Amino acid sequence: MNRSFLLCLLFLALPFLLFAQSNGRLEGRIQSLKGEALPGISVGLEGTTLGSTTDDEGKFVIKNVPAGSYTLQATGIGYESLRQAVTIQVGQATPLYMRLNTSDFTLSEVEITGNRSGNYLEREGTTATKMEAALRTVPQSVQVISRRALDQLQVVKIEDAMRNVSGVSVETGFGSRTDIFQIRGFRTDQNSIFKNGFRNPARTYRESANVQQIEVMKGPASVLYGVSDPGGLINITTKKPTAYTFQSLQLTANNFGLIRPAVDLGGTVGESKALKYRFNGVYERNGSFRDFMKNKRYFVAPSITYDFSPNTTLSVEAELLNHNQPSDRGIFAVNGKIADVPRSRSLGEPDNYSFYQNRFVQYNLLHKLNDTWSLRHAANFNYGTETRKLVEQTTLVKNSDRLINRRYQDQYYFERYFATQNELYGRFTTGDQIQHRTVAGVEYSSFLLDLNVKRAAYDVLDIYNPVYSSKPKPVDKLATSQDYQDVTRNYGFYVQDFITIRQRLNVLLGGRYDIYDYRSEDYLGKNTVEQKNYAFNPRIGVLYELYGPLSVFANFSTGFQTEIGRTLEGDTFDPLTTTQREGGVKLGLFQDRLNLTTSYFKIKKSNVSAADPRDINFKVQIGEIISEGMEIDVTGEVLPGLNTIATYSYINAKVSSDGTTPKGTRFQNVSPHNFTFWSTYELQRGPWKGLGFGGGFTSVQSRPGDATDSFRLPGYTKVDATIFYRIEHFHLSVNVKNLTDEHYYDGAQSSTAIMPGAPRTIISTVGINF
């Protein structure tokens, strides 16, 4: 595997190495003295015709600049002009960051129009390092899906975006009503989905309307975030208040009854413009290709930023979400094969009910001590409740291949999560050629989960000829099957130094120590379990720039997860431990407009529990599972207006030993080979400027449907297409998803819960910005 991987890397890199670049590229960001992004600032190289204008995040790019020394001039209405010397090198992207002072005369408000969706290729991220860093310098695989890509894909659910990330597949979780993914073969649930750097537990689909970008960091993330799943971490960055005023309205609809109006507002308050705001709101009413699966959703997300001074800024944001959608556990597999029933068939009842609400508040206080050091204090509060009253399937009737048992369930769920982070940031140099970007922090979090479930047997249903609502619900026969409360507290202490030596060698060193405290009260069984774990997790990564845009990297990191329970001897379990070894190549093409990352990884998870052969009521930690493979990611702008996302992943994820599952059994829902491709082209000039079109495909191989590989989800290739038009304040887009009406399956929780994929879907969005 290692030899094949190296040959593949050489094969991929060779043509690009032969493609010598005679020009360079200048990219950067312009901010005010308060640190706010400045859109609409003109930048140009004196003595040339080369120039650009900053976008809504203050970023600019000047392409195809011949190598040499220049003077960059930045000008904008209401700001003093600034000139700065820059040197452009062959085949390299030169970064530049500037701050402009306000001019003495009064500034009348300047209207900024046009597309504010930003770049297709995001070159910077914060997830892997806890500070803003160019992704091409980070010695780890990180993939970012930008707001512009989200818009072109017409993403309503986060899972629609995650299908375009290498090594990631969608899994159906909690009855297909929340976000669950597989990353590099490992299930990624609430522990590894974050929002603005904080863990974000939720038992419903996270809203996409206020998402600015999604970062996926591959591999264990415990060094900065504590408990984490082995495959990776997903961090959702939300839209922020703006220093300019704008309003955006849009309406989205599809052929299954979706009606989704949305609003996005931003601007400032007062003459000083110290107070900025942002507001996102959505109402959604949706049908489904699945019987009885209608939903309603309300979502509002206000946020503000206040500048106390040029050195001190406070940001506060909140979310309110109400979501009404019954759970859907899909269809059955019978005798090792998926039942041949319509993909629309539901095995629940028409009057099934489920209501979820979530409340979220987060604040971030940043204070700049001096040019070297900054302090950050942030906190996150999140709580959600869910009420479910429904009929759902359980098992096949004994000796039958078509009759299933169903039960009636009355469930109440409550969760509350609080966390605070306190961090010290530093930027300094030692010697002439060594630059440091350091972060040290302390984090405390508390998570409470309260669950009460009552159940009763209901009826028997024929999956090939169902008769619904045949008898009244057995409300008077309900018996409590689960009633418990879990409380976990975590204390984390971490430090990291991102070192750059002579502008070519980047070294990432970090470590975190965690104290994890768990207490569970089982009100039904009248017993209490208490457990405390300690874990130290280091990380080291190295990236070296071989030549211009070509770099090689490698990293080693560890992670942990808690394992709750006791052995036959009464001892508590040790944490599940994870190690990852990763190496690869990063390459920037066409003056860094197009980025290519290839990587090889091997992840080993140890201390996996299995049934104790001495007493099956207890477990022993004897298991080990391994996932290894390779990934290729290509993202960016091939030519002006031609954007592309292409990924490939090979994942060899198998059980090494766990005491019960046969050695070599492949991981559930994990396809060995996955391909995705998405590309769009937008006309850049002429009477039809702003008209665009494109499409792509997702190709997945056959994969196990359950942990024992007792049945298979068949492979498939799904084709999507789009056409869109943007002119001044108006935009319109139409996407056709599953153009060929492929019959496929998204994933499975077990042989009794298999989720069919959606048939051909036409989704359209019309919007206006002013």
Question: What would you say this structure looks like, in words?
Answer:
The chain folds into three domains: 79 residues, Immunoglobulin-like; 114 residues, Beta Complex (Ferric Hydroxamate Uptake Protein, Chain A, domain 1), CATH 2.170.130.10; 532 residues, TonB-dependent receptor, beta-barrel domain (Maltoporin, Chain A). It is 4% helix and 61% strand. The chain is mainly beta. It has a 22-stranded antiparallel barrel. A five-stranded mixed beta sheet has the order 10-16-17-14-15. It is globular.
Can you tag this structure with a few keywords?
single chain; 770 residues; mainly beta; Immunoglobulin-like; Ferric Hydroxamate Uptake Protein, Chain A, domain 1; Maltoporin, Chain A; 3 domains; 22-stranded antiparallel beta barrel; 4% helix; 61% strand; globular; disordered N terminus
Q: Which fold name corresponds to the CATH topology of the largest domain? A: Maltoporin, Chain A
**Main beta-sheet strand count, sense and barrel state:** 22 strands, antiparallel, barrel
Q: Determine the strand fraction and express it as a percent band.
A: over 45%
Radius of gyration: 27 Å
Mean pLDDT: 86
What is the rounded distance between the termini? 54 Å
Q: Please tell me what the overall shape is.
A: globular
Number of helices: 4
What is the CATH superfamily of the largest domain?
A: TonB-dependent receptor, beta-barrel domain
Uncertain residue ranges: 1-21, 103-117
| Reported CATH architecture of the largest domain | Beta Barrel
Structural class: mainly beta
Total beta strand runs: 45
The portion of residues assigned to helices is: under 10%
Please report the first level of CATH classification, the CATH class of the largest domain.
Answer: Mainly Beta
Say what oligomer this is. single chain
Tell me the number of structural domains.
3
